[in-house]
Target: KAP P-loop domain protein
Amino acid sequence: MAELSHNDNPTQIDGFGQVNFIKDIANVIKHSTPPKGIAINGYWGTGKTSTLRQLQKELDSEKILTVWFEAWRYQHEPMPIVALLNEIRSFFSNLNKALAATKKISSVTFLGILGAFDETIKVASGGVFSPKLSDLPKIGKNYENENYLNRLPTADISHLLEEAIKLALGDASKGFNKKLVIFIDDLDRCHPEAALKLLEGIKVYLNLNNCVIVFAIDQRQIERALNKAFDIKDDTDSHHAREYLEKICQDIYHLPLPNSQRKADYLDELLGLLDLGGDAQDINQKAAQASQHCVEIKLIVEAFDCLPANPRKIKALANRLAVMLRGSVNLVSNRTVQNYPNIKFAYALLVASAIIYTFHRELNEQLNKNPQFIDDVVKFAINHNLISKEIKIPMKGIQPSYDGSTLLPTNPSDSNVFRLHKLLLALDTLRGEDIAPFLESK
Model:
């Protein structure tokens, strides 16, 4: 049964044709010499988490062990790095196949090695501490029960952790590549101080000869957060933050931006999974109606390139289109768009209305209150400089992408960019009564 709407869960399906991008990074990780930090950079909503999941799946197939850490869940911890270390410890204790492959160390022993951190703290001022393997289970239990949030020492603990991971990974000949890949997701959603604390902790404790760290970040957001954490007042001065980030991440990969065809294909795929309504009683006829909806909509978004390069936003648009198609909107008319004989006028209005509803809330509210305002929206599409300040109030948060003769530079992923210029100009003279039925559909 078709779904009514999509959720925002990450997917392991390659919707934007990034298979080669992912394989290239996986190959770098597989053949790299740790310690190494890698960042996958993309704007919010552009599919970083999905890309990380696909990369994790690729590495899992290569028998490289991976740990997943959602940074924002632990941003309120006094020491986020401790939460990450605990995640690594839990991973190995639960990974029976890795422990069975090594035949050298039990999960309790591994926890004990991490538990030795606390004992090292106690004796750090008096000399070097070297725990015996026979003592580790007891140390590990004490660490679990009493010392989760204690501050960790540095060089001695890093050495112990590296040895612990080395033992837990075991012999590569047993079927495992001898490196641990740690995925850090949603670091850019953490409070600035928490993001800096975690990065500092990673730099100090996980700069290990058997660890690769892969971050998913919005570089803009991370640099702003670091500026704030460093108390740099000038938001435009990101040099220090960038230098800091590059010290941790030697390779920074930018998510490939999809072209108009990729975006159209993705929307079409999403719509094909949803219940798009239809008045036919026969299931095959209903499927044919839904298929026709998809064909008509895809023609429009291909021709006018009106979608952001943002999977999350396209998913939201697909959900809105499905709601409208299941509603009472009338798409029976055979009227076509001038100079576009294969594009139906009603479907063009459907797409324009859905985009305004999904991405431009204040403009949608104004049109609902006064459908005749569409005349001013068309003028805005022709040239935003010709609109008075008073008329522009519902458009104050909208960034134009066209000035009447030239395409303006805009962020390809942001949904506040007005991308309906070409479509509205093609629709030519629009009346309030044309758009009103699409505004009323729920």
